[in-house]
């Protein structure tokens, strides 16, 4: 298992390694909204608004290898991955009581991709999501934070991201409330989707 060292001091974090397939103007756009740590979800909201604008425009100077839809989806996925990392960073000291958090390579990128897929069939897409990030330790769920992609849209569904602690990477989770320890996350995770406009049972999907 290859791990990425991240979230070591303060709000520092390792940026998700993404294949550089975005055209130049998309890179500049993402950088504009992600260069500073915005904890109120405004950057993701701005990306969602931009996605709607670009889909309705006729831009003919994009990279011919990528469709406009692909550019928009990739920008949103990158920003969502960063928001998940920011959520983990905020919870690191206050809730997880650890100094260092180790993430499997591309974990947040994979989670963001699957969240995007789960939102694809929703009336408002990702803009209608209310995302909760939780950590499962020994069968107990601990809330770490929430992400609201667009505060101007009434949520149509809740999506819980259940990350898992790796028992082999943290001395079987002993001394949970002792500070200055390292927490390693497992590569597997779970997504639980609940439609707020339907009485149907939640949809649970596990990813290895």
UniProtKB/TrEMBL annotation:
Keywords of this entry: Cytoplasm
Family: Belongs to the DDIT4 family.
Entries under InterPro entries matching the protein: RTP801-like, RTP801-like_C_sf
Protein name: DNA damage-inducible transcript 4-like protein
Gene3D superfamilies given in the database record: RTP801-like
Gene Ontology BP, a term: negative regulation of signal transduction
Keyword Nucleotide-binding: no
Main location: cytoplasm
GO cellular component: cytoplasm
Compartments in which it is found: Cytoplasm
